[in-house]
Fold this protein.
Amino acid sequence: MVNRTQIQARDSLVNQDKNNLTLSNETQSKDGIQSHARNLLDKFVSSVQVLIEDITALEVNTMVVSRISGTKFSAWEAYQSIYSIHDKDYFEVMGIPESPELRDRYTSLFSQLEREYFYLLIEDANSKSNVSQNAKVKQYHQRLHFLKEIKRGKIIESDPRYVELARPILPAPAPVIDDINQENQTNWQEEWEKNCDEIQELLNNDKFVRTLRKIIELKAALDGGDVTSTKIDTIYAQTVMQLDGDIITRYHKDLFDLPEDAKNLILQIHNDGVVAGEKQWRGILDFMINLVKSLANISPNGQR
């Protein structure tokens, strides 16, 4: 009788321990899920904040092109495409004619992306100290100074000091072997891997990727026509709307040199685009406002 009672008591303790262990595991699992959900929510809120900064204005451009690319956006490919513009053989390889205006349009795309990278470096420099980043910021500042000197005619672009400063501060997406001195630099692969890590970090930056997306769209517009032609696709009409109520509409002078039917068709298409764009824009604003309100009602533990 005693042995049976002892066995029953032991089994009861074992079952209680199992129940407690199961409950503990369930609690830990629930806590882990809540923590993961909170991290996802924090990232989502951060993305929403960045997005809100970018939807305070609506811009509608109307242009006529001979071809529209159906290629989907790939951040890495877009970065490589824009970076390649800086290659000294880019225009020859792509068969782009020696039109200063056309080539300037291409090189300005690279400059825009590099400028965005420069701004990110400044933001990082304000929050943390990084020798490599500070050196790039200094190089960019010095280059801007030399560009002013070039415009004033005090130096020329072939000046060795400017040639060195003109090297991109953007990390190269491929190994740069042409400029390697084997006696002084044998770790080019290590440098390239470092660049790849930095590029990947850039492509995780929402602000940088938004700029990259806009720039690659501008490049697609340039590539949309005949790249061997010096004729540049013209933005015939542009409308910009601001949240404060300002509306700015611009028309290219060439629009009024077109035949009446073509001019009226472009104006009609542009106006329809503005109406549709405004409707979609206001819908996004309403959605974002309601979303922010919903997020504001969520307590720190993830509950409403």
Notes: Residues 65-233 form one domain. The chain has two domains: 65-233, 234-304. The mean pLDDT is 76.
